[in-house]
Amino acid sequence: MALGDDALVARCQSEVPYRVDAYRELVRRFEPMVFGTCLRMIQNQEDAEEVCQDAFLQVFHKIGQFEGRSSFKTWLFRIVFNLSVRRRENIAKRAHREIKVAGEIAKHSDHFVPPEGAAGQISLGAEVEEALSRLDGNEQRVLILKFVSGLSLQEIADVFEVGLSAAKMRTYRALESFRDAYQEATARKGGPR
Fold it and tell me: Helices then strands (H, E): number in the chain?
């Protein structure tokens, strides 16, 4: 019989770092959700894989500090959320530097071809991707945590370290913003399919 999350976490806390059977089971159980969340937040497969690995490394090193004040899933997704946000910020800084360099090259070359778009993105449809890209970072994150990672409103509140009513309001506003952005995107493409 498979252990529940709480029992598995307790076993993992008692075993790590000397035995890793329970830790491996935690990784096996949560890796698909963690990777999916990372991929949606970062939108690059290689970076998402690294953040996923970093998150589970952090779990390995800090599982003894988990006090159970929230569910393990919430604690894990707070780690994933923070690492993903940090990685996105680093990617944005790197992209900004690359744009500056590309601009300088373009000034001095008649044959400049800009680099292609990021590889490894999940394809949700052009209108959905466009609508998501129009949302601010927190709105995107709320929707990803809710609909990609499947977190409850309480778990989202715990990840953002806000109250339940604030999480509900953020989710509602993000959905409203998404709806408006999606309607604009589909109107430009000739209506919904």
Answer: 8, 0
Alpha carbon distance 183, 185 (integer Å): 5
CA distance 45 to 120: 5
pLDDT of residue 96: 54
Tell me what the pLDDT averaged over the chain comes to: 79
DSSP letter string, 133-149: HHS-HHHHHHHIIIIIS
Longest dimension (CA), the chain: 67
Q: Taking CA 40 as the corner, what is the angle to CA 39 and CA 46, rounded to the nearest 5 degrees?
A: 20
**Main-chain phi, psi angles of 18, to 5 degrees:** -80, -35
CA quadruple 32, 38, 42, 47: dihedral, nearest 10:
-80
Segments of the chain with pLDDT less than 50: 101-124, 193
pTM above 0.90, yes or no: no
Number of Cβ atoms within 10 Å of the Cβ of 153: 16
Check whether the bond before 115 is cis (ω within 30° of 0).
Answer: no
Which residues are CB-neighbours of 78 under 8 A, at least 6 positions away? 158, 159, 161
Query: pLDDT tens digit string along 124-152?
Result: 456 777 777 888 888 888 887 887 777 78
